[in-house]
Amino acid sequence: MIELTSAAATRLQSIMMEKNLTGYGLRVFVSGGGCGGMQYGMGFDQQARAGDKVETVEGLTVFIDPISAQYLEGIQIDYVDELMGGGFRIENPNAVATCACGQSFRTEGERHVRSTCSH
Questions:
Q1: Would you state the torsion angle of the CA atoms of residues 22, 40, 96, 64, taken in this order, to the nearest 10 degrees?
Q2: Cα(33)–Cα(38) distance, integer angstroms
Q3: Residue 113 phi/psi, 5° resolution?
Q4: What's this model's pTM, rounded to 2 decimal places?
Q5: pLDDT per residue as tens, the chain (119 positions)
Q6: In this structure, what CATH number is given to the domain that contains residue 98?
Q7: Which of 91, 52, 87 is nearest to 69 (CA)?
Q8: Residue 14 maps to a domain
Q9: Would you give the distance in Å from CA 23 to the centre of its chain?
Q10: Domain tally for the chain?
């Protein structure tokens, strides 16, 4: 299960309205890369794909592919509006190390090739 703060849900709903994405859901995923070895990604999708975990959180449909689900269990997605760089923040209880950029992480036992931080 993932958690969306009310600030994150409000911002996501606002983006969806601005982009006329009625009926879409939020896709949350991880991919290899970043300075921590894995990085977070989010986008909008119209429907679930085969094997997706589908949750309704704060009124939003959330899609997570089965590989990403093992790394994203228990995450909290927040939205912070700050003068010097606001945006979405992900707190991941499965991460044993995170990059200062907040976009990259490593879990116990992962041995992904690290690259330099681009954030």
A1: 50
A2: 5
A3: -70, 130
A4: 0.79
A5: 899 999 999 999 999 999 999 999 999 998 876 666 778 899 999 999 999 999 999 999 999 999 999 889 999 999 998 877 789 988 888 765 565 555 555 566 655 444 444 44
A6: 2.60.300.12
A7: 52
A8: yes
A9: 19
A10: 1
